[in-house]
Amino acid sequence: MEKLTIISHPVLQHKLTLLRKKETKSCEFRRLLNEISGLLAYESTKELALIDVDIQTPLESMQGQEVKQAPIIVSIMRAGNGMLDGLLNMLPFASAGHIGIYRDKFIQNTVEYYFRLPKEVAGKEIILADPLLATGDTALACIDRLKQYNVGKITMICILVSQQGVDKLHHFHPDVNIIAIGKERELNEDGHLLPGLGDAGDRLYKTID
């Protein structure tokens, strides 16, 4: 069974439409991606384990609940960094890691240029963030690396995905959940999502030629 959840909430779809628009400026694009990521934090953490804790309200003692083990948010650089603040705002108890991997079209393979995780990641849940899952090559390389560290459950959150990328990821890692707010029609010859929203990194950081 495909572990893909597409969230069709009206507020998310409204923000996605604004994100897609060509005329949306970088500052607005960053704000929208931040807001969307914060909302996606709810869906990506709904199965976190809780523990009972004794607390004191201003009026009386009671038993509350807290997250048993904080997840680790891992950004796939550079576009994933645009999601990081939104996720950390909603999950301030989480720690964060970064993976820099890109697909080199000349050597037809992925290249890792940066990798940094918090200490003691074994067994801990991972929220892997990247706005777009297109060919799936970069996400696949990141998950391969994460599993070398014996991490726990991995949930990947995206804005948009392709069926091709989902199929490739689940072929090699059927245990990984994917959460997104849209599945695109197809990929073009350059591996870009259509209709898509363009290059998320370029739009985030205003590096479009």
From TrEMBL:
Its cofactor is Mg(2+). It is an enzyme of class 2 (transferase). GO terms for biological process: UMP salvage; uracil salvage. SUPFAM superfamilies: PRTase-like. Its EC number is 2.4.2.9. It comes from the Bacteria. Belongs to the UPRTase family. This is Uracil phosphoribosyltransferase.
